[in-house]
Amino acid sequence: MPDPESLILSILDPDGRDNPHPAFAALRSSVPVYHHTGLDTYFLTRFADCHAVLTNSAFRVPDREWCSREFPGWREHPAAEFFYSSLLRTNGAEHSRVRRLIGGGFGARRISALLPAVRGIVDELLDRFADATADGGAADFQELVGYPLPIAVVSHLIGVPPRERGDFDRLGHDAGRLLEPVRTPEDWRRADEAVVALRTYFADLVRRRRAQPADDLTSTLLAVRDVDDGRLSADELVDTLLLVLVAGFETTAHLLGLAVHALLSHPEQWRLLAERPGAAAGAVEETLRWDTPVRMTERIAARPVEVGGVPIPEGGNVTAVLTAGNRDPARHPDPDTFAVLRTDTKVLSFSAGPHYCLGAALARAEGAELLERMVTRFPRLAPAGEPVRRKSVSLRAFARLPLAAVG
């Protein structure tokens, strides 16, 4: 069996990025809590250990205080100032306050109210895909559907008029570089420019909605802020809208591509779903388990604590490998089998505990609506060439996914 360090490094090469699961399975069976000295982090590959860390108050996300120690000069980067002040990177009372104030904007009632718009957007995009493949040729699913769908849905949620969404794809991609654990100077430059541009746009949108409220998230958050004695600051409001765009766009776009690819890579599952389109929600859940968009997330120990029998010192960095936890046979029997009718599924894909993703229900709804309509309209959809994966350590995503409607 390869040594643990070799297993970790193997996921960084092209083959490992494409299929990291054997390496994670070997690590889970040999050293499920492994301290990599070079990266100075404890890798967790069991479901129970990952879940325990994500829900334990002894662990915190890397925040502004951490960033000030580890990344001197971070405030020179607008993107870092945004990211490490956002809901993704706050802890304790500060995190709870902001989450409580904005949580109502993502409740079941709002998601239910969004569904007709989601269905309309899905149908429009699938019409375009049908036109592009009408002559039997191939079309890039990510370009025509995978990326435009979440951009349109999250823009509709926020209240961005269709004519003003033109740059959101590019800006969302560039700001999304913040989700990578290692960023190049070019990553920072593009992320900084995107954050500045999006902050400017959303500040203007807030001004317009203050003068003329509408039935959208911006107006909802403005009302919360004003009624609640200003507890959500103007800057927090703008940055919340920015975060909703970036987080709601990037990971959902990846989920859609991963779901379609997983189903087409298992033709019997695609046919099963075509026969039972009502199982689309289960197909989304199985995709999240089998090939989750966010591979890993990190936490910092706020005090000495033990995980899986291994002592973690105060300040120790822990990496919960969500991809590995979701395929832990102790939680999901026969984990390498993709089965849309699997039951008793519980995934780590949207994290857990205080930082559970606020947009999880919306992402699931988008995926289910898309798959249900796709299998109905394109029952004989098929791959049309090699997909191109995005080069990323922390994200599972397709840059291109060529498909053909063969009948």
Automatic annotation (TrEMBL):
Keywords: Heme, Iron, Metal-binding, Monooxygenase, Oxidoreductase. Pfam families: p450 (PF00067). This is Cytochrome P450. Belongs to the cytochrome P450 family. Coiled coil: none annotated. It comes from the Bacteria. CDD domains: CYP164-like. InterPro entries: Cyt_P450, Cyt_P450_B, Cyt_P450_CS, Cyt_P450_sf. The lineage of its organism: Bacteria, Bacillati, Actinomycetota, Actinomycetes, Kitasatosporales.
